[in-house]
C-alpha cells in the first residue's frame, strides 16, 4: 500500500485519519504538507510499528533538528526496515547529523539518504561520513545538494568512498567546492574499492583546470555511468579533455549532462565523435550552450551514424534557427534510437518545424517526446504538426508552450487529437492565449480521451 500526498495542509483530524492508514503502508510520501516536529513524533511510532515501511519522503517540511531526532528514535528500533529516507529542505542543521550518523551506523536496511537543501555544512557532513564508514552501513545513494559544503569536505568523502564499496550514487551539486577540491575528490574516485555509478557536480565552481582529473576517472572507472557537470564554466577546452576520457574503451558512460558549460560549436566536433562511436551513451544534455546551427549540424551527422545509440538529446536554448532544421530532419529520419528531443527556446520558426515534421513522419523515426516551446511558431505550422500528431503513434508527449498559436493553431491540433489514430498522452500549452470557446473544446477533449492530459 502507498500513501502519496503533496501540498496539503494537515488538520488534526486529517492527520489522525492518515496515521491509521500509515500503519500498513509500504511507502509514505508527504512532501510540502506543513509538517513539524510534533508530526515526527507520530511518524516515529509508525516506523516502529510498521515493519513493511521501506520508503519515507518528507521533503519541504519544517521538521527541524528536533523532528529528525524523533524520527531517528523510530529508525533505530530493531523492527525498522526503512530503505529510503528523503529529508530535503527540512530546515536541518549540523545538529541533525549526529543523530543521522547513529542511524547510518546501526541500520543496515537504509540504502538511500537524501538530505539536500539543508544547512548541514562541512562539519555536519563529516559526521555523516563517520556513520557511512561504519561496517554496518550499507548506504548506496547519498544526496547532498545545497548543503553549504566547502573544499574541506573532500577528505571525509574520499575516506567514505574508499571504505564503502556499496556507495553507488553521490550528488554534491550546488556546493562551493572548486577545482582543487574536485581534483582531490577524483583521487578518491580512482581507488579500486570505489564503485560509484553516478556523480553529480553541477554548479560546483569547476573549470577546465580539473577536467583532466575527471577525464582520468572516466577513463579508468568503468562503473561510472552517469556524470553531470552542468552549470560549470569548463568551456570547449574542458569538454575536449572530458571527451578523451569518455572515448576510452573502458568508459561506459550512459548519461552526460553539460548544460550551461560555456560550450560553443567548437565543442561539437568532439561531441559528434562521442555520439557516433560511444554506443553506451544514451542521454546528453547541452542546454544553454552557444552551439549554433553549425554545431547542431555536426551533432546531426553523428546521429546518423549506425553506431549511435543516443535516445535523448537536449539542445534547448542553443542559438539554433531554421537553418539547422533540415539536418535535424535528416537525423530523425535515419536514427531509430532517438526517443526524446528537447529543442525548445530556439528560433526555429514555422518553416523549421515543417522541416522537422518531414523527419518526424519517416517510418524510421521513433520519437516519443518532442519539446518545441518558445520556438517562434504560429498557427502557420499547425496543420503540418497536426498531421504528425495524428499519424505518428509513437509520439506521446508534445510541448508547444510560449508560442503564439492562437485559436486557429490550437483548433488544428485539436482536430488531430480527436482522431482515433492519435496516441498523444500529454500536450503542454503554457502561456498561450485562446478564447473561451477553444478552452471548452480542450476540456471536452480531455473528457472524451481520459488517457490525454492537457497542461496549460
UniProtKB/TrEMBL annotation:
<dbReference type="InterPro" id="IPR006553">
    <property type="entry name" value="Leu-rich_rpt_Cys-con_subtyp"/>
</dbReference>
<dbReference type="InterPro" id="IPR050637">
    <property type="entry name" value="NLRP_innate_immun_reg"/>
</dbReference>
<dbReference type="GO" id="GO:0005737">
    <property type="term" value="C:cytoplasm"/>
</dbReference>
<comment type="function">
    <text>Ribonuclease inhibitor which inhibits RNASE1, RNASE2 and angiogenin (ANG). May play a role in redox homeostasis. Required to inhibit the cytotoxic tRNA ribonuclease activity of ANG in the cytoplasm in absence of stress. Relocates to the nucleus in response to stress, relieving inhibition of ANG in the cytoplasm, and inhibiting the angiogenic activity of ANG in the nucleus.</text>
</comment>
<keyword id="KW-0539">Nucleus</keyword>
<dbReference type="InterPro" id="IPR041302">
    <property type="entry name" value="LRR_RI_cap"/>
</dbReference>
<dbReference type="InterPro" id="IPR001611">
    <property type="entry name" value="Leu-rich_rpt"/>
</dbReference>
<dbReference type="Pfam" id="PF13516">
    <property type="entry name" value="LRR_6"/>
</dbReference>
<keyword id="KW-0963">Cytoplasm</keyword>
<keyword id="KW-0433">Leucine-rich repeat</keyword>
<comment type="subunit">
    <text>Forms high-affinity heterodimers with RNASE1, ANG and RNASE2.</text>
</comment>
<protein>
    <recommendedName>
        <fullName>Ribonuclease inhibitor</fullName>
    </recommendedName>
</protein>
<keyword id="KW-0007">Acetylation</keyword>
<dbReference type="GO" id="GO:0005634">
    <property type="term" value="C:nucleus"/>
</dbReference>
<keyword id="KW-0597">Phosphoprotein</keyword>
<keyword id="KW-0677">Repeat</keyword>
<dbReference type="Pfam" id="PF18779">
    <property type="entry name" value="LRR_RI_capping"/>
</dbReference>
<dbReference type="InterPro" id="IPR032675">
    <property type="entry name" value="LRR_dom_sf"/>
</dbReference>
Amino acid at each position: 500500500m502507498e500513501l502519496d500526498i503533496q501540498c496539503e495542509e494537515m488538520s488534526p483530524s486529517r492527520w489522525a485519519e492518515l496515521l491509521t492508514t500509515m500503519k500498513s503502508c509500504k511507502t509514505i510520501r508527504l512532501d510540502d504538507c506543513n509538517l513539524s516536529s510534533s508530526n515526527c513524533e507520530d511518524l516515529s511510532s509508525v516506523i516502529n510499528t510498521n515493519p513493511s515501511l521501506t520508503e519515507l519522503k518528507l521533503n519541504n517540511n519544517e521538521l527541524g533538528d528536533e523532528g529528525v531526532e524523533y524520527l531517528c528514535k523510530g529508525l533505530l528500533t530493531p523492527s525498522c526496515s526503512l530503505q529510503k529516507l528523503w529529508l530535503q529542505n527540512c530546515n536541518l542543521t549540523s545538529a541533525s547529523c549526529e543523530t543521522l550518523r547513529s542511524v547510518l551506523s546501526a541500520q543496515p536496511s537504509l540504502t538511500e539518504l537524501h538530505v539536500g537543501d539543508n544547512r548541514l555544512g562541512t562539519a555536519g557532513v563529516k559526521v555523516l561520513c563517520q556513520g557511512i564508514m561504519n561496517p554496518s552501513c550499507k548506504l548506496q545513494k547519498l544526496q547532498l545538494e545545497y548543503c553549504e559544503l566547502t573544499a574541506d569536505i573532500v577528505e571525509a568523502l574520499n575516506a567514505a568512498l574508499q571504505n564503502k564499496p556499496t556507495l553507488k550514487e553521490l550528488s554534491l551539486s550546488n556546493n562551493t567546492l572548486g577545482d582543487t577540491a574536485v581534483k582531490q575528490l577524483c583521487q578518491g574516485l580512482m581507488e579500486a574499492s570505489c564503485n560509484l555509478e553516478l556523480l553529480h557536480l553541477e554548479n560546483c565552481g569547476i573549470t577546465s583546470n580539473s577536467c583532466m582529473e575527471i577525464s582520468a576517472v572516466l577513463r579508468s572507472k568503468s562503473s561510472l555511468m552517469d556524470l553531470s557537470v552542468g552549470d560549470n564554466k569548463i568551456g570547449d577546452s574542458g569538454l575536449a579533455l572530458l571527451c578523451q576520457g569518455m572515448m576510452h574503451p573502458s568508459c561506459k558512460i550512459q548519461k552526460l549532462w553539460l548544460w550551461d558549460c560555456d560550450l560553443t560549436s567548437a565543442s561539437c566536433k568532439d561531441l559528434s565523435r562521442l555520439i557516433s562511436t560511444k554506443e553506451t551513451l544514451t542521454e546528453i544534455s547541452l542546454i544553454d550552450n552557444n552551439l549554433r546551427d553549425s554545431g547542431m549540424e555536426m551533432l546531426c551527422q553523428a546521429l546518423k551514424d549506425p553506431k549511435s545509440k543516443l535516445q535523448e538529446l537536449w539542445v534547448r536554448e542553443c542559438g539554433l534557427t531554421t537553418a539547422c532544421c533540415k539536418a535535424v530532419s535528416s537525423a530523425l529520419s535515419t536514427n531509430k534510437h532517438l526517443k526524446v528531443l528537447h529543442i525548445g527556446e530556439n528560433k526555429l520558426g514555422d518553416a523549421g518545424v515543417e522541416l522537422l515534421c518531414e523527419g518526424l513522419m519517416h517510418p524510421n523515426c521513433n520519437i516519443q517526446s518532442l519539446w518545441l516551446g518558445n520556438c517562434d511558431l504560429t498557427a502557420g505550422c499547425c496543420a503540418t504538426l497536426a498531421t504528425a500528431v495524428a499519424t505518428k503513434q509513437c509520439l506521446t508527449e508534445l510541448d508547444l508552450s510560449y508560442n503564439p498559436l492562437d485559436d486557429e493553431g490550437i483548433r488544428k491540433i485539436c482536430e488531430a487529437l480527436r482522431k482515433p489514430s492519435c496516441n498523444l498522452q500529454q500536450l503542454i500549452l503554457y502561456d498561450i492565449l485562446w478564447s473561451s470557446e477553444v478552452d471548452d473544446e480542450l476540456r471536452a477533449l480531455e473528457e472524451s480521451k481520459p488517457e490525454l492530459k492537457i497542461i496549460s
